[in-house]
Design brief:
By secondary structure, the chain is of the alpha/beta class. It has helices at residues 16-34, 49-58, 111-121; strands at residues 7-14, 38-45, 64-72, 87-89, 99-107, 127-135, 148-152, 158-159, 175-180. Helix 1 (16-34) crosses helix 2. The structure holds guanosine-5'-monophosphate.
Length: 181
């Protein structure tokens, strides 16, 4: 995000009800693909925590769901991609051959996701799928495969539903655009 001023909430881009409906669809797709199998859902902290917890709860008993988390160095408060991804916390366990669904809040340049995909692929998972709630195609810098996507959004800075600005607004149930205060 450019500009040096402070930001306030602008308008709602995606309502909680729309997000819930889309998550139910994605959960059904995942159930169809992984029925009867064990899958480790790996969320990228902190942004994906809320999305991931709703996603796994929308998946029925037909899938053997496991949860893990990773943390990477983030944009901090500045909101511009450095292109450098540092692993702050790795997955707790990794067994070769396991099914992994990487869960991320938003794909902006794609640098974070492509780095994490490469890293996980190098560990020889059985399958690796990537699930992203939001994609900003206008900002894409690297090609990066997404298997399950919630919404395509315009190049606007968004908060809520796990996404923050300077640590704020993650708890909001809807997704909002911010504007200069
Ligand atoms: P990428 O590596 O794809 O450029 O960046 C992904 C990360 O950038 C996301 O996980 C998120 O932390 C941050 N990010 C990108 N766009 C937004 C946005 O609109 N709002 C918020 N809150 N974070 C964003």
């Amino acid at each position: 995000m450019s500009g040096s001023g402070d930001y306030k909430l602008g308008s709602i881009l995606l309502k909680k009800s729309e997000i819930e409906r889309r998550i139910a669809d994605i959960a059904s797709e995942i159930e169809r693909e992984y029925r009867g199998q064990e899958v480790v859902f790996t969320g990228v902290l902190k942004g994906a925590a809320i999305f991931m917890s709703d996603l796994v709860r929308a998946i029925g008993e037909s899938v053997d769901v496991r949860m893990d988390f990773m943390a990477v160095s983030s944009y901090g408060d500045a909101s511009t991609s450095s292109g450098v991804v540092k692993i702050v916390k790795d997955m707790d366990t990794f067994a070769e051959g396991q099914n992994v669904v990487l869960v991320e809040d938003i794909m902006d340049t794609g640098l974070t996701l492509s780095y994490l995909q490469e890293m996980i692929r190098a560990r020889n998972p059985g399958t690796l799928r990537t699930c992203v709630l939001l994609e900003k195609p206008d900002r894409k810098k690297v090609d990066c495969e997404i298997d399950y996507k919630g919404f395509t959004i315009p190049d606007k800075f968004v908060v809520g539903y796990g996404l923050d600005y300077a640590g704020k607004w993650r708890h909001l149930p809807d997704i909002w655009c911010v504007v200069e205060a």
